[in-house]
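If you are new to this repository, start here. Below is one unmodified record pulled from the training split, so you can see the exact layout before writing a loader.
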Amino acid sequence: MYLNKKVKIIFNPNAHRGASVELFKQLKAELDKHDISYVVLETKKHKDAIELSEKNIEDNDIVFIVGGDGTVYETINGTITKNNIRYFIIPAGTGNDLYGTMKNKFSFEDAMQSLKKNLTKKCNTITINETVTMSLFLAYGIVIDIIMECRKGKKKNRFCYMKAAAKSIFSHKPTHFKYSVEDGKVISIKADYIGLHNAPRAGGGLYISPFSKIDDNKFELVILEYVGFVRRMLNFVAIVRKKIDTQPNYRSISCKKVQLKSVQDEIFCVDGEILKGKEIIAKLNNGVIKFYI
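And here is the target side for that same chain:
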């Protein structure tokens, strides 16, 4: 029942500080049990998954990704020009936001059934400045402070993110932005956070964009306008309580194209990866990618 399936495995042994290794062993055991042949592509360093995917993954392949959102991001960017690639996320990262958007729990029994029945879910992608493809989110603002603070610590987990977020509430300086939606009027704003979201979750399970869906042929421009320190604290509590959309300084704008310019910040985050650039143009892609669920 699994004949004629070309399977490649992108394996990040460092995901979740090595916790991915056990999941990788279990995946190989399941594939062997079902007589599915596969090729393992193991990453050694940052951005390895992009190069490995470009060189080794072919049209019509099924790609198991054993890693976190960053590994998924790299694999997608390495295969975006190929045809009919179907991805299977083995959630081995810290946050696993993309997988968590599609399915609550993971089991290898369900995974093999999904493969057998060819159960897939479509996911929109967004192109940033014609060079980078995102499936989850892009963000400027306080989230960068949180990521940088968290990276200072020895452990990278959800508690680390929460601790870094609490510290950033006091230290973050709001940024001036200019943006336009669908080539419309340019609007200036001072914000703690501005981001593009294709899924409700980001930052290790935080529901920042509850109106986002990965398959609705649009994405959300999310803005947390700066109106003072007290409101910033209330925003943080609201995010934890999954009620950020109830805050008076929260905006969510559905769109297919956004031009965004940061007057000060030059660092932004795409699907967990840190990039540089003060100005971006984001466009919804016409095509979609497929994930097994």
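Two things worth knowing about this chain: DSSP finds eight helices and 17 strands in the chain. The CA atoms of residues 241 and 283 lie 31 Å apart.
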